[in-house]
Structures are given as structure tokens and as C-alpha cells.
Amino acid sequence: MMDQILFYFFGGLAVLSAVLVVTSRSAIYSAIFLITTLLATAGLYLTLRAEFLFAVQIILYVGGIMVLFAFVIMLVNLDVALHQAQFNRQRWVATLLGLVLGAQLLLAFLLGHRDGANRDLLNLPSVAVTQLEPNTQLIGDVLFNKYVIPFEIASILLLVALVGAVVMGKKRI
Amino acid sequence: MIPTSHYLILSLLLFTIGVIGVVTRRNVVIILMSIELILNAVNINLVAFSRHLGSIDGQAFAIFIITDAAAEAAVGLGIIIAYFRNRQTLLADEMDLLRW
Fold it and tell me: Nearest CA of chain B to the CA of A118: how many Å?
């Protein structure tokens, strides 16, 4: 019961603020609603018993990426930008096509994968909480044993991103 | 317990909202934010299946995706700042230097 209350609270919050991210006129409001969505997603990770990802989500997304977004919005803040149209000319067609994409994904859920008992993805049986404890230790174990090469590639990717961000921030480019 | 399908539907909603944001907004910063929404939807999916299948691999993948999101945000925002310094605009449909 408590699980369901938490799920619907966080899920509703995430969807509502995601809609506000896309529809609000000012970029800084969008950023604040995006923070709300990310925090609600962190809450959803807790309902899924993924405590490490909960902490990573808050520290990395809300503490790191969103601060970056807020800085950039303040650096490039333009008063004229608020008086311009915020949506494309093709917005209605684009929205319609986006909804069609969502409907296609839903159709894929219904028709795509079948498990042994011929159930589609939306009728998967609910499972009991599995023994993914201790969460952090298991993730570290799998990151440094099974996925050690992707882990190293990710570190190279971060190095490239670091150099790229510094080069892009240079005065003359 | 909440069935896994609820998480799938939630992730589908967030993904669709993110896609609509990418294709309808003009401000490049908000387009980047919509991409973050899409990546988050994928993460929810991965973690939900990690619990459903009783395997930790999905959560490890989610960590890789968060790494990618951080790298993408850093480089993307750097490009936005460099572009803004040169052209004084942030609107995606005015970035048409390469248009033939």
C-alpha cells in the first residue's frame, strides 16, 4: 500500500513536471521543473530498491548537470528571447508525430515480446523484492569485473568530454 | 508490489514528452533538457527490469547512461556558449549556416 502511494506520488510528479519542462516559456523555469522531475525519478529508484542509483541521481544530475544548465542559462540569458516565439512553426504536426511514436511504443509493448506463459510486456507478473542486497557492493562488483572494459571506455569518454568542454569555452574558436 | 508494467508505462510517458520537447521547442537549451528527460526515461526502464529479472546489470547500465548524460551535457552546453558568443542566438531554427 505504502509502495503504491509512493509510486503514484513520484510518478505523477515526474510526468507533471516533465510536461511543464516542455511547455514553460522561460528556460530557467524549465530547468527548475527538470530538477523536480529528476528528484521524482530518484524517488522512483528508491521504490525499486536501487539505493545507489538514488544517490548517484541526486549527486550527479541535480548537483552536477543541473548546476551546469543553470549557469549556461544565466550566461546566455536574453531579455529579447522571452518575447520571441518559443515553439516551432511545425509544433502541432510535431506534437502529433510524437504522440504517434508513443502509441507505436505502446503497441510494441502489447504485441512484441511474449514470455513463456504467452503474456505481453504489460501483463508481466509482479515479482517479490529480489535479493539485490547489498546494492552498492553488487554494483561495484559487476562494474569492476564483468563490465570493466565499458567502465574504462566511459572514463575515456569523460576525458574527451572534459577536453571538449574546455576547448568550446575558449575565447576564440 | 507495483507491477513492472507500471514502470514501463511511466517511462513511455516521460520518453514521449521528451521527444515532443525535442521536436517542438526552439530554444537549444530546452532541447538539451528534453534529451535529459529521454535518458531518464530509459534509466527508469533499465532499473525496473533490473528488479524484475533479479539482476544487477540493469543498474550498472543505468550508471553508464548517467555518465553519457553528463558528458553530453558538458559538451553540448559548451557548444551552445561558443555558438551564442558568435551569433547571439539560441534558437534552433536560426542556426542555418550549413543550410544549402
Answer: 15
Domain presence at residue B99: no
B37-96 tens-digit pLDDT: 999 999 999 999 888 888 889 999 999 999 999 999 999 999 998 888 888 888 888 888
Of A91, A126, A165, nearest to B1 by CB-CB distance is: A126
Each residue's pLDDT tens digit, A91-138: 899 999 999 999 999 988 888 777 666 677 777 766 665 567 788 899
Whether residue B95 lies inside any domain: the answer is no
Q: How far is B98 from chain A (nearest CA, A)?
A: 17
Helix A27-47 and helix A66-75, axial crossing angle in degrees, nearest 10: 180
Q: What SS3 state is found at A49? A: coil
The CA distance from B73 to the nearest CA of chain A, in Å, is: 7
- Looking up residue B29, the CATH number of its domain turns out to be 1.10.287.3510
> Is residue B47 included in any domain, yes or no?
yes
The DSSP symbol for A76 reads T
ipTM over 0.95: no
Domain that holds residue B42: 4-89
**A108-119 tens-digit pLDDT:** 888 877 766 667
Per CATH, is A1-86 categorized as 1.20.1250.20?
A: no
Structural domain count of chain B? 1
User: What's the rounded Cα separation, in Å, for the pair B82 and A23?
Assistant: 26
Residues of chain B found within 8 Å of residue A168, distances taken between Cβ atoms = 75, 78-79, 81-82
Q: Which residues pair with A110 in a beta bridge?
A: none
Sign of CA dihedral A26, A28, A33, A37: positive
Q: Tell me whether B25 touches chain A (CB under 8 Å).
A: yes
State the pTM of this model: 0.90
Enter the DSSP assignment of B2: -
For chain A, domain boundaries: 1-86, 88-122, 133-173
